[in-house]
């Protein structure tokens, strides 16, 4: 009785230990966070399955506890009870350790899995942000009307840059998460190249935002500095005007003092002219970064200042001239002559500088280059026009000197020379402005002229192609006219987009007239374009009736040729089941595509009945069709057979492996691990195992033969994989045979109760499990 309870307790302990060892083995196989995401997910599912086996383990532990309790109740020896308690404590500790290992393994993999999901979500958000910022920063900056608009534009750019800088924290967090995941996973999707890619994308966006903000900041600062210079110039101009008023309308002073003040004012005016020249240079830079309307306002502002300065100079010169006349002395002559020489020198420098600006302008650059050149030339022409009061003043000063009885011939020659240079510069500026404006007008008028040339030709072609016998020539002419129509559409549309430029060159009234003509021309062009398309359709229908068979026949030949080429490509061997399945599907699709050509062939046969040549061609292509159909059906059958053999090989390998593992487990269970001895097996049970092994050997030989057959229809990279599986199966089978041969046997004796019971149960288990797996 006690021996039976002891055996039952030992059996339950062994069953529990075997279950825990199996669980440990599964956990060790899956206790790894390295690898791709699919592998991690697979290990997560495996650990979930392992954790779901906890009730099974607890049931085995409960069985041990029940058997232990029954055994302890019947044992009388304290030593036996102590050994039973020791075994019971050991099995409990092993079970708790197994449960803890299951929980920790699953939790660790699940934590990494969830961590990875959160990282991917954050990475997607970062990618979307990169895309949105790229779309925002990609377009070129728009030119603004004035300083206030430029400041608004700069503030918007600074907000974008702040957003970009704030994203650096998210990027750093992503990089830390990616590095952490890569250390745990070793997956290429989170390696340094991916991290460097995110850094590069962010740096590219940040660089664009910084460059745009820096450029806008420079543009805004230039405009602010220019506005401050304008304000300072206005204040200075008002101060000089007040000074002149005080000098003229103030308390009477000596004429010498008044002349000295007037000369000081003259010097002030000269310095003001230099400051105005500097402002003109600065205005050119500001105008480049300002919209056309804003540039026009800047030019008007400069013109007003230039006019006010010229009026101040004229007033001062008049007063100075009157004072000099009243003096009518040698000193007055010297003063006037020196003043004239200074004015002539200054005027000559100004003319040379402005003339140099005219010579520095280069041609080219399309519409934008011409408009920029025209604006600069206009500014220079306006500047030259503003110098007219100076030229007149010089001539007046020279006339005043004629009143004195002095030799003024050298001064007269100088004044005549500089006046001639001034007129030459004005004429050149006028000529260049006129030429540039004429060139722009030509460019704006060219689309309308091209339309006026295209319209009568189109109407003549439409009238001449009413006769369907002109199909070929008419189609060529219409195709040319349609291409020209598309080009005209783009050019006419371009005029509307350049409305601001046209207005700045032609004026609003002429620009509106030109754009109205362009709109009318576009409507006529669209109507004629539709007529051309309709005429093309009618001519093509007429041409297609004579060419329909040839086109359809060539298309059929091309499709058959394509099917033949694709079929030839599918003769290559595939490495695995997936490749063979894909090859079979492709062959079936080609066969279906070939079958779909049958209605087209029948239609072509009906079209070729009255033409012997076409009938002969159709017979030839029909023979090729039948030939291709036979080839495809043969290839599909062969591919299907190879695929079924591969399926059968995988199935048989998967079927025999559990049987061999079960037989090995049953044999190894007879080993006494504690003493290193082997329990003797009954001869009858050995015969049962040998018969089972013989059946497995037959299956093994069939698998080897089938594997050789499958390898003949498999590509080289797939053969090595199959050969490895066959070698592992053969090695496992050989080790199983060796294990059975090394087991001691005892025939026709009374074996221990455990051996007898083990033999019967093993046979039943082998039979039951084998039939269940089959």
| CATH fold node name of the domain at 1-139 | Methane Monooxygenase Hydroxylase, Chain G, domain 1
Order of helices and strands: HHHHHHHHHHHHHHHHHHEEEHHEH
* Individual helix count: 21
CA gyration radius, whole angstroms: 51 Å
Give the overall pLDDT as a whole number: 78
At a glance:
The chain is mainly alpha-helical and 774 residues long. It has 21 helices and four strands.
Report on this model:
The chain has 774 residues and is mainly alpha-helical. Among the domains are: 1-139, Up-down Bundle (Methane Monooxygenase Hydroxylase, Chain G, domain 1), CATH 1.20.58; 189-327, Methane Monooxygenase Hydroxylase, Chain G, domain 1, CATH 1.20.58; 447-545. 87% of the residues lie in helices and 1% in strands. It contains 21 helices and four strands. It has a two-stranded antiparallel ribbon. The longest helix is centred in the C-terminal third of the chain and has 62 residues, at 508-569. The model is unreliable at 672-679 and 747-774 (pLDDT under 50).
């Amino acid at each position: 009785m006690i021996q039976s309870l002891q055996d039952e307790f030992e059996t339950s302990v062994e069953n529990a230990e075997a279950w825990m060892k199996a669980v440990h083995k599964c956990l060790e196989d899956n206790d790894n966070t390295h690898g791709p995401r699919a592998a991690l997910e697979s290990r997560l599912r495996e650990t979930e399955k392992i954790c779901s086996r906890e009730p099974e383990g607890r049931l085995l532990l409960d069985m041990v506890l029940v058997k232990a309790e029954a055994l302890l109740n019947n044992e009388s020896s304290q030593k036996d009870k102590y050994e039973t308690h020791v075994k019971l404590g050991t099995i409990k500790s092993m079970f708790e350790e197994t449960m803890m290992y299951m929980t920790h393994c699953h939790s660790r993999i699940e934590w990494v899995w969830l961590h990875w999901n959160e990282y991917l979500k954050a990475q997607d958000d970062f990618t979307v942000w990169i895309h949105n910022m790229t779309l925002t920063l990609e377009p070129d900056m728009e030119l603004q009307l004035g300083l206030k608009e430029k400041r608004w534009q700069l503030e918007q750019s600074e907000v974008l840059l702040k957003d970009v800088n704030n994203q650096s924290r998210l990027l750093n967090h992503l990089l830390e998460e990616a590095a952490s995941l890569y250390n745990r996973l070793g997956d290429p999707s989170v390696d340094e190249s991916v991290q460097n890619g995110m850094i590069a994308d962010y740096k590219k966006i940040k660089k664009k935002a910084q460059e745009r903000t820096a450029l806008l900041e420079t543009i805004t600062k230039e405009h602010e500095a220019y506005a401050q210079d304008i304000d300072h110039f206005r204040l200075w101009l008002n101060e000089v005007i007040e000074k002149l008023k005080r000098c003229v309308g103030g308390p009477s002073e000596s004429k010498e003092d008044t002349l000295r003040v007037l000369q000081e004012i003259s010097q002030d005016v000269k310095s003001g002219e230099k400051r105005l020249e500097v402002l003109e240079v600065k205005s050119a830079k500001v105008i480049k970064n300002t919209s056309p309307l804003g540039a026009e306002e800047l030019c008007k502002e400069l013109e007003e200042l230039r006019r006010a300065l010229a009026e101040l100079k004229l007033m001062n010169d008049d007063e100075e001239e009157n004072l000099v006349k009243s003096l009518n002395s040698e000193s007055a002559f010297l003063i006037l002559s020196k003043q004239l020489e200074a004015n002539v020198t200054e005027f000559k420098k100004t003319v040379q500088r402005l003339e140099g600006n005219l010579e520095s302008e280069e041609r080219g650059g399309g519409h934008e280059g011409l408009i920029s050149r025209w604006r600069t030339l206009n500014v220079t022409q306006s500047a030259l026009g503003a110098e007219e009061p100076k030229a007149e003043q010089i001539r007046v000063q020279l006339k005043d000197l004629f009143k004195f009885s002095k030799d003024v011939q050298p001064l007269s020659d100088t004044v005549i020379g500089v006046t001639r240079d001034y007129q030459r510069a004005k004429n050149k500026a006028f000529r260049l402005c006129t030429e540039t404006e004429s060139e722009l007008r030509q460019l704006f008028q060219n689309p309308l002229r091209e339309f006026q040339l295209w319209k009568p030709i189109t109407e003549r072609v439409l009238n001449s192609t009413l006769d369907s016998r002109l199909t070929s020539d008419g189609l060529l002419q219409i195709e040319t006219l349609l291409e020209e129509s598309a080009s005209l559409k783009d050019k006419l549309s371009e005029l509307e987009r350049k409305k601001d430029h046209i207005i700045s060159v032609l004026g609003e009234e002429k620009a509106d007239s030109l754009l109205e003509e362009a709109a009318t021309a576009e409507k006529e062009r669209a109507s004629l374009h539709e007529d051309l398309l309709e005429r093309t359709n009618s001519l093509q229908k007429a041409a297609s009736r004579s060419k329909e068979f040839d086109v359809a026949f060539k298309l059929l030949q091309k499709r058959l040729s394509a099917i033949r080429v694709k079929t030839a490509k599918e003769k290559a061997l595939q490495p695995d089941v997936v490749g063979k399945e894909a090859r079979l599907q492709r062959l079936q699709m080609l066969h279906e595509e070939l079958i779909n050509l049958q209605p087209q062939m029948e239609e072509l046969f009906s079209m070729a009945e009255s033409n012997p040549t076409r009938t002969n061609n159709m017979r030839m292509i029909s023979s090729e069709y039948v030939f291709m159909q036979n080839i495809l059906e043969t290839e599909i059958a062969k591919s299907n057979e190879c695929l079924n053999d591969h399926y059968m090989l995988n199935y048989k390998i998967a079927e025999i492996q559990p049987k061999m593992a079960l037989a090995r487990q049953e044999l190894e269970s007879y080993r006494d691990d504690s003493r290193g001895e082997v329990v003797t097996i009954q001869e009858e049970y050995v015969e049962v195992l040998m018969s089972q092994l013989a059946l497995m050997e037959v299956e093994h030989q069939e698998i080897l033969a089938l594997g050789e057959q499958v390898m003949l229809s498999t590509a080289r990279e797939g053969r090595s994989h199959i050969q490895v599986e066959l070698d592992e199966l053969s090695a496992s089978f050989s080790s199983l045979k060796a294990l059975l041969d090394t087991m001691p046997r005892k025939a026709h004796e009374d074996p221990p109760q455990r051996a007898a019971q083990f033999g019967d149960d093993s046979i039943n288990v082998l039979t039951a499990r084998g039939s269940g797996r089959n």
